[in-house]
Specification:
2 copies of one chain form a homodimer. The first copy, chain A, has 14 helices and 17 strands. Chain A is α/β, with parallel strands linked by helices. The radius of gyration of chain A is 24 Å and the shape is elongated. Strand 12 of chain A pairs antiparallel with strand 12 of chain B, so a sheet runs across the interface. Chains A, B: This is Homoserine dehydrogenase.
Chain lengths: 432, 432
């Protein structure tokens, strides 16, 4: 007899887990209609079975022993919303080993051990979906896999961390200082007490590693991502950026030229007319360029209990459909291409550069001469008095230049007597 | 024996039809992998079978007789890319009558006869998909059906006509006149020789009727959409809009408050910080607000052979998957809710109003007094000399006001001696 009910083991019963239970309960009929099968959560792994919960009718399903899920032959799908690396990694690998399909919301795990997990899934013919791990409420992984199935992705740019985007937006809109806005964000619960993972770009880097691995089919590791956070962005940079037509955003960039790839997360000057420049507050957006479709962008909430739980249930629906289609595992593509990382000389970008120089005749000429020697030409130049006219400030926007050339120019400038201080240097995107 | 091959009859073999054939040919293996079934185009309806074509190997499949497709019991799916109302409507209804599934790119047909077609599909248990009919390269209908399956959509705002958005963008960026930009757009092939359908908003209205019908499950008709085109938008309006923080866009709006619905297409002042304000050139974008997910936006190419053909093939893949799942027809939801249209007194919006008045003391006081009597309060007011100071110009941005109140104020003002001319009045969106 054909299977009528798909049985799900839920690991983790915090806010996202609770949301998943609620959505599955509330939409039984819809889910049946969409998939032709019923979905039943039959066991829930928790740390403490005695704790009182908002959904008490699930109490009989609770267990503190993962093996009760992993070794239960009746369970078809494991939904992991525990988070963190261990024991989530061990549980997921064990579930796959038992031929169970997996849905996870775990970005840390997928960024660090995604290749291992996808390879195991492929070996076992199981599904692994992880939509909720990147930009919770935006179905971006699904879009990359389905929407671009017959296309070739060349570039992805993402605002994939809500905390830093909230801070950059506030700094821009209110002309406020980083430290003040961070404090406010912490008070509002948009930033954690220890904000390092967000503000230093590590969280965004995890998501970009996941996007690049999936979009380019290359096993990108977290350490392959050039990361720079926002803690050094000043309100002056933002104000000058605006004047020249840019908004500063913590931008994730994954770009492929030929087979060579670069992935980075860094504060970036984004041209105001580019749709990413208007992504404000805690919102996320991912811009994708495909050879056939051209430019697309997906915008929405990056986190939150309901959007995240909705993404998990959507993945679950896909697993169930695949079970009925008999195509589980076919959508799982472990990265199979060789990883070719760009050298710095291949990383081309426009740059925004701000420096304070001695107020002497010919300084601007010397600076531009130096750039010209490295084949860096200029798109915009502003010079103005600084520090009551005792110094001058130069702001430059370059045409495309290689990172290696830019780095060597900066290193050389640091040693020039006429250059008092290099205040900032940002990549410029979205202006082509 | 279970079916191994799904047979497709293609109706229409122009650029989109050719694109569909190419994609199906090029991605056989992928399609098989995704669906577990092969997809074969077995007949192609053309007007002239003798015409020479870029894909000559399909010549044996060509027919000029629709019945050869409609009455062929081996054909499971009909893909209609002929366009227009008749005979496309008759063909699609006949195909459904025969139990064939339908994929169409036909926005005119779906806007005018969508309810009839969906009802027939529901009756026959057949699939009808029409992703390519709205914003070609953006999977927006799929997102509405799948992504928001467990949510309630309250508002959609769309830039869904590339021609008008190109014109508005050029006017904004270059401070150019409407007539000049239209001519340029015609020369570049972005606008047709007779641009009426685009510039008067009818094309956008069709797409908004389709979006509202699907998003709200209500049988919206084209005549339910308030339509105003862009031909009266002046470069002055755009310049004043910018000054106050807005971009003028031809914006489709579909909004539900309680069960009451309004759908309109009109030039609208969109707050600059809203992501829709940065959707430039021929690009399309649809912004969707759902009660659970909050704000999302989907951005991409609105037309083009490859994006449109890709959307058609994606629909075809869904039909094939549904065939194997045995769930055809279940995703088709003919609009089942009663249509409740808002009265003008329920249509709330902020407004931008520009008028030329006599340069007399107390004129501004009279105008604001009149607005206050209708409970319309003001957010921004600018008064300045006009016509070398012989007159004055007043620009107002109101807080939320009812359309009925605004209309009666405008009618009254037309008769006031001190009001020389009401230059323009726009809805304002995206500023909350």
């Amino acid at each position: 007899m054909e299977k009528q009910i798909v049985r799900v083991g839920l690991m983790g019963f915090g806010t996202v887990g609770t949301g998943v239970v609620r959505i599955v309960q509330a939409h039984q009929e819809d889910l049946q209609k969409q998939t032709g099968l019923g979905i039943e959560i039959t066991k829930i792994l928790v740390q403490n079975a005695e704790k009182s919960r908002s959904i008490s009718e699930m109490d009989p399903l609770l267990t503190t022993n993962a093996d009760e899920i992993l070794n239960d032959a009746d369970i078809d799908v494991v939904v992991e919303v525990i988070g963190g690396i261990s024991p989530a990694r061990e549980y997921i690998l064990a579930a796959l080993e038992q031929g169970k399909h997996v849905v996870t919301a775990n970005k840390d795990l997928m960024a660090l051990h995604g290749a291992e997990i996808l390879a195991k899934a492929e070996e076992k013919g199981c599904d692994v979906f992880y939509e909720a791990s990147v930009a919770g409420g935006i179905p971006i992984l699904r879009a990359l896999v389905e929407g671009f199935a017959s296309d070739r992705i060349t570039k992805m740019m993402g605002i994939v961390n809500g905390t830093t985007n909230y801070i950059m937006t506030k700094m821009s809109q209110e002309g406020a200082d980083y430290a003040d806005v961070l404090k406010e964000a912490q008070a509002l619960g948009y930033a954690e007490a220890d904000p390092t993972s967000d503000v230093e770009g590590f969280d965004a880097a995890r998501k970009m590693a996941i996007l690049a691995t999936l979009g380019f089919r290359v096993p990108m590791k977290l350490e392959d991502v050039d990361v720079k956070g926002i803690s050094s962005v000043s309100k002056e940079d933002i104000a000058y950026g605006k004047r020249l037509g840019y908004e500063v955003k913590l931008l994730g960039l994954a770009r492929r030229d030929g087979e060579a790839i670069e992935v980075s997360v860094q504060p970036t000057m984004v041209a105001k007319h580019h749709p990413l420049a208007s992504v404000n507050g805690v919102f996320n957006a991912v811009y994708v360029h495909g050879e056939a479709v051209g430019e697309t962008m997906f915008y929405g909430p990056g986190a939150g209990e309901l959007p995240t739980a909705t993404a998990v249930v959507s993945d679950l629906v896909t697993v169930v459909k695949n079970m009925k289609l008999g195509v589980n595992g076919r959508g799982v593509v472990a990265p199979y291409k060789e990883k070719v990382l760009k050298a710095d000389s291949e990383k081309l970008s426009k740059y925004f550069l701000r420096m304070v120089v001695a107020d002497k005749r010919g300084v601007l000429a010397k600076v531009t001469q130096l750039l010209a020697e490295k084949n860096i030409s200029l798109e915009q130049v502003v010079q103005q008095p600084y520090n009551n006219g005792s110094q001058a400030e130069i702001i430059l926007v370059t045409h495309q230049a290689a990172k290696s050339d830019m780095d060597s120019v900066l290193a050389y400038m640091e040693g020039m007597e006429i250059v008092e201080e290099i205040k900032s240097c940002y990549r410029v995107e979205g202006g082509e």
